[in-house]
Amino acid sequence: EAQNWPQVTDSELQKVSRKATVTPLFEKILSASDADLKLARLIIPKRCAENFFPDISGLHGLRIKIQDIDGNEWEFHYRYWLNGGSRIYVLEGLRDYMVSKKWQSGDTVTFYRVEPGGKVVMGLRKTS
DNA sequence: AGCCATGCACCG
DNA sequence: CGGTGCATGGCT
Fold first, then answer.
1. pTM for the predicted model, two decimal places
2. How far is the CA of A19 from the C1' of B1 (A)?
């Protein structure tokens, strides 16, 4: 009994009880083509992609899991197109998300990072 | 100088 | 003939 009584320092308690930190990464106002259900893809501004999304070397990109604000997890495909000597980054496979959130041109999508873990969360703000 | 919104060729 | 993946061009 006594030997199992927790003897923790204040700083340990702080660490244990600390809430997850949520850092806004970037947001984008949806263009008409971002909101096109047939395309179902979102152009990620280059600087945002390279600063905040995983590095991708090959043209095939990678599958990326992103959680929405309600904790539902979605899986998209993150890749890029070659454009001149540069890249255009694109998040594909958004159709279900778009339908579910009534994603429309002019709305604003915001990406967050949650630590610890580094999970990416996305939220949608409708035009007011 | 070059991003990125969108046009559009071409491949199945 | 619908989508992918790139080309084009408006715009900053």
1. 0.86
2. 44
Q: How far is the CA of A39 from the C1' of C4 (A)?
A: 10
What does chain A come to in residues? 128
Quote the mean pLDDT of chain A.
92
Query: Is residue A92's pLDDT more than 90?
Result: yes
Whether pLDDT at A56 is above 90? yes
Strand C lies under 7 A from the Cβ of residue A56: no
Cα–Cα dist A116/A80, whole Å? 27
Q: What is the mean pLDDT of residues A61-89?
A: 96
For residue A88, say whether its CB is under 7 Å from any atom of strand C: yes
User: Does the nearest atom of strand C lie within 7 Å of A16's Cβ?
Assistant: no
Measured between alpha carbons, how far is A31 from A119 in angstroms, rounded to an integer? 26
* Alpha-carbon radius of gyration of chain A: 19
Residue A25 to residue A53: CA distance in whole angstroms: 9
AA letter at A58: G
CB proximity A43–strand C (7 Å threshold): no
